[in-house]
Amino acid sequence: MDDHGFLATADGQAPRVARIFVLANPDFYLDGLLAVLARSAHIQIVACVKPGADCWNAFVAAEADVLLIHRQAVLDVPGGFSRHVQHAPNLKVIVFGHDMPDEFLLKIIRSGAAGYINERMSGEHLLTAVQKVLEGELWVERRILQRLILRVVELEDIINQAIESIRNVLTKRESEIFRHVLGGLSTKEIAGEMQVSEQSVKLHLGNIFKKFDVSNKQQLILLTFQRVCPVSNVLRLFQIVMDKHQLAQGKPPLIEDPLWRDGNG
């Protein structure tokens, strides 16, 4: 079997086995993907089921690391794969299929997919894709990455507007305390930064909590995050922002194009 350098650990321990749940109707394309996955000693197919009423129970029982789902199943299942991700937050989703338009690819990445496999990618790409998404990376082509970057610029404007809307309901002193809270400072540290008493900080915090109907700083941070980032894949989008600066400087992106090494990106 081909280990493919798969999931090798930095401390020299044996690589763990990646459990893959496949959701697709049987066909020759699926047979080919399964044959590729079977080449790795560090991949285990824990279920391969047709979309239908029994799929959910099979998925829950499988406790998979990766959901490999056909594009048609994404379209046919209500909510796509959102229910799977909500049930297993650490689940990595890879969508596969032919003739997937760019808008569809953009939609699945924004919805939480970690990557996709299309007709332009080989068996080696599939094995590498599984490895990369389990390492927390995106598996997307350069053109999709560039379009995501443009969407991130739009997202930055949305975030800035949301932050301004929050600040508009706060006084100048409350805004300063709010900024320190988001920076992770304790009440004592905020008092030191602002050169005021801790009691004064607590008083202003109490007013902020009332305005946003929360009871502590943790709830305030979560509420702020929800208001300014109402999308999936926020951390990955932050990565893409970093790539925007990399590309502008003529440097390779931090998120590698799956086909770039083949000269097809």
From TrEMBL:
<feature type="domain" description="HTH luxR-type">
    <location>
        <begin position="163"/>
        <end position="228"/>
    </location>
</feature>
<dbReference type="InterPro" id="IPR016032">
    <property type="entry name" value="Sig_transdc_resp-reg_C-effctor"/>
</dbReference>
<dbReference type="GO" id="GO:0003677">
    <property type="term" value="F:DNA binding"/>
</dbReference>
<dbReference type="InterPro" id="IPR011006">
    <property type="entry name" value="CheY-like_superfamily"/>
</dbReference>
<protein>
    <submittedName>
        <fullName>Two Component Transcriptional Regulator, LuxR family</fullName>
    </submittedName>
</protein>
<keyword id="KW-0238">DNA-binding</keyword>
<dbReference type="InterPro" id="IPR036388">
    <property type="entry name" value="WH-like_DNA-bd_sf"/>
</dbReference>
<dbReference type="InterPro" id="IPR039420">
    <property type="entry name" value="WalR-like"/>
</dbReference>
<dbReference type="Pfam" id="PF00196">
    <property type="entry name" value="GerE"/>
</dbReference>
<dbReference type="InterPro" id="IPR000792">
    <property type="entry name" value="Tscrpt_reg_LuxR_C"/>
</dbReference>
<dbReference type="GO" id="GO:0006355">
    <property type="term" value="P:regulation of DNA-templated transcription"/>
</dbReference>
